[in-house]
Amino acid sequence: MLPFKLIYSDAYYLPIGDHVFPAEKYRRVRDRLISTGVADATDFLEPQPATDQDILLVHKPEYVQKLKTGTLSPREEMEMEVPYSRDLADAFWLAAGGSILAARQCLTDRVSISIGGGFHHAFPDHGEGFCMIHDVAVAIRRLQRDDKIRTAMTLDCDVHQGNGTAAIFAGTRTASALLPSSSVSTVEQPANAPKGGRLPGKIRGAHAGDVYTISLHQHNNYPLFKPPSSIDVDLPDGCGDDDYLAWLDNAISSGLRQFEPDLLCYIAGADPYKEDQLGGLGLTIEGLRKRDDLVFRVARARSIPVMVTYAGGYAQNVEDTVTIHCNTVIAAKEVFAPA
Ligand SMILES: [Zn+2]
Questions:
Q1: CA 292, CA 286: separation in Å to the nearest integer?
Q2: DSSP SS3 for 128
């Protein structure tokens, strides 16, 4: 039995037909975790869908109404890049409910993983990039409303920048002081940063309010327009394990010097993988596992509850995506094992 809960439902499946997003990955992750003995059936909790009231803590009433009545314009549906159906909307409401449950659960168990979610490209008034509802933002706002947390930090390690997250939490920023990390010159370059040839990685910083947002992503990738997160790390094409881990360590340290979150929301995208069809970074499966390990070790050392969502993963071989997502559970199991 795991020392924490996995949040999962068969209804996480996204009914989007033949699509680059492997909608069946959630069930395959669950099956693999059980068949390999990493988890057993008692480790899983089944979420309830978020309520409309929860969704409205983040999303605009007009947008929610369109989703409930199937009245998105063709342009809005095209921008979402998944075919609208009422069933698909239900799956996103459930993903948001799963993230709320994961956020609650980690407050007592130190960590919780939703085998789904991480729809970080959803904005208050529109969806894009396969994302309809921003489940992580809904979870943060719901726990704040319930007075379970005051502050949160999002740590987005999907290969694509968390534009929805940045936009949703930009409006709540208060202070305007820049971070020490706001210019490249004040940030220690990783010792092994590539010299010449490729573009160097860049770390950009801004201020934050009650939610602090960190995104590590490939610079030359979707979204074209990247609204500023509290910290953005723009990684060069082909960035490998060692450089990536150094940038990640640097970004987390910078963030936690500036901000003390009551909750860490780790968006553990599998798409920084070198064989991803929609990504251009160069991480190995082992490197991605070290990434997860680093995040969990920091959270444990600082006693920050951490909830995990899965976001993207488009490996040429879907089994690799499943392996990367399963490894996140294995890393948490090792780090949070009872002493
Ligand atoms: Zn992605």
A1: 10
A2: strand
Q: Report how far ligand 1's centroid is from the alpha carbon of 278 (Å).
A: 7
Ligand 1 centroid from CA 322, angstroms: 15
**If pLDDT is split at 50, 70 and 90, which confidence band does 205 have?**
low
Residues surrounding ion ligand 1 at CB below 5 Å: 158, 160, 269, 271, 312
- From the list 263, 252, 260, the residue with the least C-alpha distance to 293 is 252
Q: Measured between alpha carbons, how far is 101 from 307 in angstroms, rounded to an integer?
A: 9
pLDDT, tens digit (0-9, with 9 covering 90-100), for 95-116 = 999 999 999 999 999 999 999 9
pLDDT in tens, 275-293: 999 999 999 999 999 999 9
Compute the distance between CA of residue 167 and CA of residue 226 in angstroms, rounded to an integer: 9
Give just the sign of the alpha carbon dihedral 277, 158, 334, 141.
negative
**SS3 (DSSP) at 171:** coil
Query: How much is the pTM?
Result: 0.91
